[in-house]
Amino acid sequence: MTSSTIGAPPRARGRAAALLGVSLGYFMVLLDMTVLSVAEPDLAASLRTSIAGLQWATTGYTVVFGALLLSGGAVADRYGADRVFRAGVAVFALGSLLSALAPGLGVLVGLRAVLGAAGAACVPASMAVIARLYPDPGERTRAVAAWAAISGAAVAAGPVAGGALVDLAGWRAIFLVNVPIGVLVLALTALSTAPGKAPGVAPGEAPSVAPSVAPGAAAGSPRGERRIDWAAQLAACAVLALLTDALIAAGSRSWAHAAGSAAATALAARGFAALERRSHAPVLNRALLGSGGVRAGLAAGAAVSFTLNGALFVLPLLLQQGRHLSAVASGLAFLPLTLPFAVNPPLTGRIVARVGPRPPILAGLALLAAGGGGLAWAVGAGAGYGWLAVGLLLTGTGVSLVLPALAAAVIAAAPAGTAGAAGGLLNAVRQTGATVGVAVMGACAGLGTVTGTALSLVVAAALCGLAAAWFARRSSPGRSRAGASR
Where is this protein primarily located (predicted)? Predict the structure, then answer.
C-alpha cells in the first residue's frame, strides 16, 4: 500500500483495504486452480490413485466452478454482492482446511466441488463489490486494473508456491495456505459490509446513488429481485459432470463406463434444454448464442483454457516422473509459461485500445498453436529444457494476448444490453474448456508419459488453430475496433 494511501482520509483507506481484500479473494480462487498442478505426483503416491483420480481431483473444482458461474452474477444480484462474496470466501477457506485433512480421494474430490461452488460465488460478486466501492468510472477503471494485477499474479505464483510447499510439507500444505488468506480477506472487507453504511461512504455523507435496500438488509449489500432457476442450473452442472466422467473413463479405457456416462450426458442435456425452454429465468441467454461473433469468441476462450489447464495437468507429471525434477524445480520450470500473465496484460490493454481486440486474439491463438506444437516436438524428441522453455513462453504469451482482449471482443459482438451476461458466459465457457482440457489431455497422457504427453499437446495446438480460423472468419475488424472504442 502506498504512502499516499496511508495518509489518505478514512474513507479512502477503507476503500483501499476493501479493494485489497477483494483482490486477494480472487487471487485465492485463481491460486487454487494452478497450485495443485505440481502436487499431482505427491498426491497420487499419498492417496494411491491413478491419472483418472488426479483428473477428478482437478476437474471436481472446475466442473462446479464453470457451471455455477452461469448463475453467479444472478446470485450476487439477488442476495447482495458483499454478503455473497464474504460467504464464498468463508466457505473457500473452510473447504481448503478440510481438503488438507481429506483421508481419501473421494472426500477430496467432494471438497474440491465445494471449493468450486465457493469460487463461483466469489468471482462475479467481487466485480459487483468493486463497482459499489468505486462509482466514479475513472476510479473504477484504476481499481479494476489493481484487482486484475493482484489476482493475475496467482497464475505466476501458483506452480512455484505449490512446488515449494509440496517439497516442504507434502500436497496437503497447498490447501492450508488458503486458510490465512481467507481470514485476511474477511478482515479487510469487513468494513465494506458494515451495517448502515454504503461502501466508500463516510459517516454523514450521502451516497452518489441511493440503492433500494430490502428491509433489514445492510445498505452496503442490497438485495435484488432477480430470479434464479436452480433446477436448470443443477442440470447444467450434471451435464458437465457426466461429460467429464465419460471423457475420463474413455481415457482409462473403461469403455462400458464411458458409454453409460455418455448416454447419461445426452439425457441430462435434453433435460437441461427442456428446463431452459420453460424457464422464466434461463441460465443461458439465447440472444447471445444467436450471434456468430459471440460463438466464435466463446470457442476461442474454451480453446485457450483447454490448452492452458491441460498443459498444467500433463507437464508436471512429465517433469517429475519422466525427467525426475523435484516439485519446486517443476514449479520454477513453469515460469516462462506463467510470467507473461503478470507482465503482458497492461500491454495487451493498450493494443486493444489502439487496434481493437481482433489482432491480439488472432496473434495469441497463433502463438498458442505454435507453442503447443513446439512443446510436443520437444517432449517427443527428449529435447533439453531450453526447448521446453521456448514452447512454454510462446504458450504463456499467447494466453496473455488472448484473454484480456477476448472479453472486449465478445461484448462487442453481443446484442445491446447483454454485456454482463456475455462476460459471465465467457467465464463459464472458459472453465468448461479447462475441465475438458484436463479430461482429454490427461486421457492422452495415460497412453504413455512421453508419447501420450506429446499427443496431448498436438491436440491442444490443433484446437487453437481451429479456433483461430473460426474467429478470423466470424469476427469483423471494423466491428472489433468499434467495440474497443465503446
Answer: membrane
